[in-house]
Amino acid sequence: MSRSELDGVLPDSPLFMVKYDGHACVVNSILLKMLPGEIRGMRGYDAESGEMQQEAFFAITDYVTGSISPLKLIKNMLDAYDTISSRGFGMIHTAESVGFPRNLDVDLVRWLSRGGRSGFQTRVFFQTMNTSKVLKRKLPRIGGCFATALAGCFGSMDAALLDCPREDHRHGVIHACLPTDEGMDLCARNGIQIPLQPFFLNWPQEPSSYLREILGEREAALNPLRTLHDRGILLAGGSIQ
Fold first, then answer.
1. Are 98 and 125 in contact (CB under 8 A)?
2. Hey, which residues does 53 pair with through a beta bridge?
3. Tens digit of pLDDT per residue, the chain (241 long)?
4. pTM, entire model
5. What total of structural domains would you count in the chain?
6. Residues 28 and 6 sit within 8 Å (Cβ to Cβ)
7. Long-range CB contacts (< 8 A, 24+ apart) of 183-187?
8. 236 pairs with which residues across the strands?
9. Among residues 89, 42, 78, 88, which one has the least CA distance to residue 63?
10. Is residue 177 a contact partner of residue 161, using CB atoms and an 8 Å limit?
11. Do 119 and 94 have their domain in common?
């Protein structure tokens, strides 16, 4: 999918299409012209194709979600409740705080869930590392998925920098696709683990035929679990690979 293809479908209105795994997006020309200037210098920005990744993707996501009016947001949330419940679902796990001013989406979800009479259960996972925001709202849980993916966990940075070297470190490498021989030797030698998801070997959204078209012969070495295991590398379950 490219900017020119989106322009062919919707040339007169802004269009923001997120990749199914939530890590990239494609925008059309109208939206591209609307974006703040500082985004253009961010890593992952590609005006030619319209595909945005890395920091540019998250900045654009914040811009787009922040531009939605509160009334429209409430209507969309209520429509989502109706649609999901009509299909037999009884619980929603929401990952909130993704660009709305003053974390408006977090509070709206809480208020809407309290006012429901359908017995629908809602669990809010506040995506933040700032525990005071969560405690102030008396939420029983915290999300922090993206923040912890980057920082490790609460206190991990201090533990790594202030108490080193360590005999029992827990270093790991995520997104360790297409590992090189040198990289695997380094991991085995230094006790570096690989958090991964074996499910990716049979992922309907990215079948082997699709990967082979992109990678050619390298497709077989994309996630070499047997090779990693035989080299003595610790493999661990992870939410992202």
1. no
2. 24
3. 899 999 999 999 999 999 877 789 999 999 999 999 999 999 999 999 999 998 999 899 888 888 888 788 778 877 887 887 788 877 766 655 555 667 777 777 777 766 555 566 677 777 776 777 777 777 766 665 555 555 555 566 666 666 666 666 667 888 788 899 999 999 999 889 898 888 778 888 788 888 899 889 999 899 899 999 999 999 987 655 4
4. 0.57
5. 3
6. yes
7. 184/227, 184/228, 184/231, 184/233, 185/231, 187/228, 187/231, 187/233
8. 195
9. 42
10. no
11. yes
Q: What CATH number is given to the structural domain containing 57?
A: 3.10.310.70
Location of structure tokens 């409430």:
74
* Phi, then psi, of 105 in degrees rounded to 5: -65, -35
60/106 same-domain check: no
Q: What residue numbers bound the domain in which 44 lies?
A: 3-66
**Nearest-5° Cα angle at 52, 51 to 56:** 160
Query: Which structure tokens are listed for 76?
Result: 């969309």
SS (H, E, C) the chain: CCHHHHHHHCCCCCCEEECCCCCEEEECHHHHHHCCHHHHHCCCCCCCCCEEEHHHHHHHHHHHHHCCCHHHHHHHHHHHHHHHHHCCCCEEEEEECCCCHHHHHHHHHHHHHHHCCCCCEEEEEECCCCHHHHHHCCCCCCCCHHHHHHHCCCCHHHHHHHCCCCCCCCCECCCCCCCCHHHHHHHHHHCCEEEECHHHHHCCCCCHHHHHHHHHHHHHHCCCHHHHHHCCCCEEECCCC
Instruction: Single out the residue of 28, 53, 49 nearest to residue 39, CA to CA.
Output: 53
Q: Say if residue 58 is in the same domain as residue 78.
A: no
Residue 61: which residues within 8 A CB-CB, separation 6 or more?
A: 18, 25, 98, 99
